[in-house]
Amino acid sequence: MRLYQRPNSPYWWLDVTINGQRHRVSTEQTAKREAQKSADRIIEQLSKAPNRSKEIWTVGESLTSWWEEHAKHTASADAIWSNIENLDRCLNCKVRVDRLTNALLMDFRAKRRGEPAWRSGKEDNPDSPFVSAQTVNRDLAYLQAALNHVATIHLQPVADIAWSKLKVREKEWRIRFLSADEYTALIDALHPAMRPMVVAAVTTGLRRGKLLAMQWHQVDLKGRTITIPTNKSGRPNIVRITAPLHEELEAMRKAQAIDPTTGEARIPTGKVFDTTNYKRRWYAAVKAAQLEDFKFHDLRHTFGSWARKAGADLLAIREAMDHSNIAMTMRYAHVDPDTEITAFDRAAATLRHTGRHTVKKKHAKTTH
User: Fold this and answer.
1) CA–CA separation, 152 vs 144, rounded Å?
2) Which of 149, 213, 214, 298 could form a disulfide with 66 if both were Cys (CB 3.0 to 4.6 A apart)?
3) Which pLDDT does position 126 carry in this prediction?
4) How far is CA 150 from CA 23, 155, 226, 355, in A?
5) For residue 56, what is the DSSP state?
6) Residue 279: phi, psi to the nearest 5?
7) How many H-runs (helices) and E-runs (strands) does the chain carry?
8) How far apart, in whole angstroms, are the C-alpha atoms of residue 9 and residue 15?
9) Surface-to-core class of residue 178, CB atoms within 10 Å of its CB (0-12 exposed, 13-18 middle, 19+ buried)
C-alpha cells in the first residue's frame, strides 16, 4: 500500500494491490492522517470484492504483479517505477494481456516519442527536447518483462508481440570528454560549491545520482576509498580516492568540522556535496567555459577516456566504471595497458597535468 499526492490534485491517493489487482483510488482527503483512515476503509471494501485471480489479467494488473513480486526488490526499482508510471499514462493498461497488439504498442511508442522530455524527468538535457529512443525502448523492455513474468508464473495467455521490431533505433554511442584545457576552463567557471563534485566525477567515474546521494559515512579519507552501497548489480562498489579528490574532500571536511553556530568541533554528516541550485550552476559554468555539446554525464566519459588514454586496461576501466558488460567499455580508444596503475590513478593523472592540482607523493601500487 502506498499513499501519495498527484501534482494537480489536493487529495491523497491510495495505490494498493489486492488479489493480484492494482487499485489507485482517491481518498478524497487532504490531510494525511484522515487519508490513512479513508485508505483503511477502501482496502476493507476492496478485500470483500470477488477474487478475479482466475480471470485473464489486464496489462495494468500484470505490471502490478511484476512490480510487487520482482521489480521493486531490485537495485533499479526507482527507475523501473518511473517507467511503469509512463506506461500507465501513455498506454491503455485496461486492455487484457491476450488482446494487446503490435498496433497498440506502436501508438504508445509514437506518443512517447512525441512527448516533451520534461515528462520523463530529462529536463537536464536541453539539447534533447523530446523523449529519447533509449527511454522508449526501456519502457517496452519493462513491459515485456512484466508480461513474461505473468505468462510464466501466473500462466496468463499473453499475446504474441513482435518486440524486436517495436524497438526504436537508437543513436550510436556518444563519447564526449574534456581536454585538459577544457577541464581548466570548466573548473575556473564553476561556482566554488560545485567544484568538488566535478573533481569527484572526473576522478571516480561515478554516475551523477551516486554523487548527489553520497554521504560522509561512505567516505574514508584515511583509507582513501568511497564505498557505494549498491550498484546496478546489487553489490557494493569500492572507489579509490586519488590525490586531487582527496585534496578537495579534506578541505570540505575541515570546513564542515566546525559548527558555524556554536563554533564547536563536530563530525561532518549528511550529504557530501552541496547540491543547491546545482543544475543552474552547472549550465552557467558550461556556458562560461564555452563547452560545446557537453553534459554532466560526459564527466563520466571523461574519466573513462582519460584512463584509457593513459593506458588503463579495459577490464580495469569496466570494473572502475561499473559497466554491466565489456561492450560498453569498448567505446574508449585503445592504448597499450599498464596494469601496475589503477584506472583511478590514470584518470587523476590528467588533472595533474592541467596544473589545477598537485600531488605531494606517489601512491603505492594497487592490484585489482
Assistant:
1) 12
2) 149
3) 43
4) 18, 6, 40, 58
5) P
6) -65, -45
7) 15, 6
8) 15
9) buried
**Who contacts 234 (Cβ-Cβ below 8 Å, separation ≥6)?**
74, 75
Residues 6+ apart with CB under 8 A from 28: 11, 38
CA 177 – CA 186 distance, rounded (Å): 12
Number of Cβ within a 10 Å radius of residue 232: 14
pLDDT in tens, 63-94: 999 998 898 887 678 778 888 888 888 899 99
C-alpha cell at 123: 529536463
Environment class of 367 (CB within 10 Å of its CB; exposed 0-12, middle 13-18, buried 19+): exposed
Calpha distance 84→100 (Å, rounded):
17
Amino acid identity at 75: A
Measured CA distances, 179 to 21, 294, 295, 354 (Å): 54, 12, 14, 9
Gap between the Cα atoms of 307 and 345, Å rounded: 8
Q: What is the pLDDT of residues 93-125, one digit of tens each?
A: 999 999 999 999 999 998 888 866 544 444 444
pLDDT tens-digit map of 302-357: 898 888 888 787 888 888 888 777 777 776 655 455 555 667 777 777 776 665 55
Report how far residue 306's alpha carbon sits from residue 219's, in angstroms, rounded to the nearest whole number.
24
Long-range contacts of 107-111 (CB under 8 A, 24+ apart): 108/139, 109/136, 109/140, 109/166, 109/168
- Rounded to whole angstroms, the Cα distance separating 244 from 362 reads 12
